[in-house]
Amino acid sequence: MAAGFLNVLKPPGMSSHDVVGQVRKIFHTKRVGHAGTLDPGAAGVLPVALGNAARLVEYMSSTDKSYRLELLLGFSTDTGDDSGKIIECVEDFTLPKREELLASLQDFLGVIQQRPPVYSAIKLQGKRAYQLARENQTVEMPLRQVTIRALRLIAFHDSRIVLDMDCSKGTYVRSFCRDFGESLKIPATMGFLLRTRVGNFHLHDAFSLEELARSGEAALLPAEKAVEHLPRFDMPEHRITAFVNGLSTGNIDFDAEESILRVYGRNRFLGMGRYEAAKRELYPIKVFREMSD
Predict the structure, then answer these.
(1) Do 98 and 210 meet the contact criterion of CB atoms below 8 Å apart?
(2) Are 261 and 272 in contact (CB under 8 A)?
(3) Architecture of 4-63+200-226 per CATH?
(4) Domain ranges of the chain
(5) Which alpha helices (DSSP H) does the chain contain, by range?
(6) Of the candidates 94, 104, 201, the residue with the CA atom closest to the CA atom of residue 148
(7) CATH for 65-193?
(8) What is the pLDDT of residue 290?
């Protein structure tokens, strides 16, 4: 069975789960997973794993992401995007000047505290937050720490602002739009959202579902593409067999106190290991035997 990652261009109007369903049909396999859910209305990069590569999806959760987003001034909604019910609207407001926008953007750079939108998949009281909201229950979303690494003003016309954002995992663009509007003292909501990057998966390399149907396995990327952001360790020849058999390897020197490593042998990806500097020991976490043959 084919194994590897696909860089899928998710279209708007389709859920991430729907994309997985389409990939299952195209590749005739049930073992498919995805990394980094995109809201149905959003488009862009959605890494999808096939076969044993699905075992590596968890390591993508820590990767940074990039977006192109549209911010709409003058109204806010219950969902935080333009698909929701308008809860505040002002028609008479002074549009900020470019210099004011740039100055306000600076306040959102770095480590910030952000309150996720009520309409989100975060679990509260054993239920998804959006389920509680739909039941008209009062929902108090806890603050969470996120990092916004870059904000670039792309376009500004009337009440529409287009930005590029680089951010950490867990960052909600809808919350950013809401909070940015509050900083300008103007209600705001998110318009379109395009995810342009997830870790090492970029928009310019992404395949639409139609292109995947034509390309088939030619579109598959190696499984280790998903973990290229993690440190690499090349296993000595005489230690390879022990590692792929699930045995820890001692007397290992690596410049880290403790780290999750991608492990190679004979320049082939063997799997993932956990290094403990105090013991100079490397412990196998996930081994890909088929790649070590």
Answers:
(1) no
(2) yes
(3) 2-Layer Sandwich (3.30)
(4) 4-63+200-226, 65-193, 232-287
(5) 16-27, 98-106, 129-134, 173-184, 209-215, 240-244, 289-292
(6) 104
(7) 3.30.2350.10
(8) 66
**Which SS3 state, helix, strand or coil, does residue 86 take?**
strand
Same fold, 65-193 and 232-287: no
Output the pLDDT for position 180.
Answer: 97
Residue 134's pLDDT is 79
Fold type of domain 232-287: 2.30.130
Gap between the Cα atoms of 269 and 193, Å rounded:
35
Task: Say if residues 118 and 133 touch (Cβ distance below 8 Å).
Answer: yes
Which pLDDT score is estimated for 293?
47
Which residue stretches of the chain have pLDDT < 50?
A: 292-293
Give residue 262's pLDDT: 93
Prediction pTM value: 0.90
Maximum distance among all Cα pairs of the chain, rounded to whole angstroms: 74
Is 39 an active-site residue?
Answer: yes
Catalytic one of 18, 39, 158, 253: 39
In angstroms, the Cα distances linking 211 to 26, 37, 141 are: 11, 21, 40
DSSP 88-131: EE-S--PPPPHHHHHHHHHTTSEEEEE---SSSS-EETTEEHHH
Counting Cβ atoms within 10 Å, is residue 237 exposed (0-12), middle (13-18) or buried (19+)? Answer: exposed
